[in-house]
Amino acid sequence: MALPWSTLVKAIPWSDVIAKAPDLAQGARKLWQKAAGQRQGGVEAPPGGSDGDTRLAGLEARLTELGARQQEITELLAALATQNAELVTTADTLRRQLRRLWITVGVAAALGLSGLILALLGR
Question: N or C: which end of the chain has fewer CB within 10 A?
């Protein structure tokens, strides 16, 4: 049985989502800007010609930059995974609560029906 969207939306801890949204948006914006800059810049030759030491220094700088970018991506993914886990936990809690509600409604309906039958038989 599918849960109504309104029930899911009401159960989401929106204060936590809203509190974490600026950090996630900022991280995503940084990654987007770096990716856009990388596409525009392309691969540049290190300054100073074909000197081996200069080229090695350029490659080391590029490797450091890539490591920093990978760290930012890892942090963003960790934040997204945490939010996803919280949403899954909330949805699971809602599913269990809905199941209990249906059981309660079923028991109440059975009791009401049996009371009605007894009242009709007692006349």
Answer: C
Cβ(12)–Cβ(87) below 8 Å = yes
pTM over 0.70? The answer is no
Residues 6+ apart with CB under 8 A from 98: 1, 3, 7
Residue the block writes with tokens 């490659």: 59
Q: Write the pLDDT tens digit of every residue in 57-87.
A: 999 999 999 988 888 888 888 888 888 888 8
C-alpha torsion sign, points 70, 71, 76, 77: positive
Please check whether residue 54 is in contact with residue 47, taking contact to mean a CB–CB distance below 8 angstroms: yes
Q: How many CA atoms lie within 13 A of 75 on its CB side?
A: 15
| Identity of the residue numbered 27 | G
Angle subtended at Cα 15 by Cα 12 and Cα 18, rounded to the nearest 5 degrees: 100
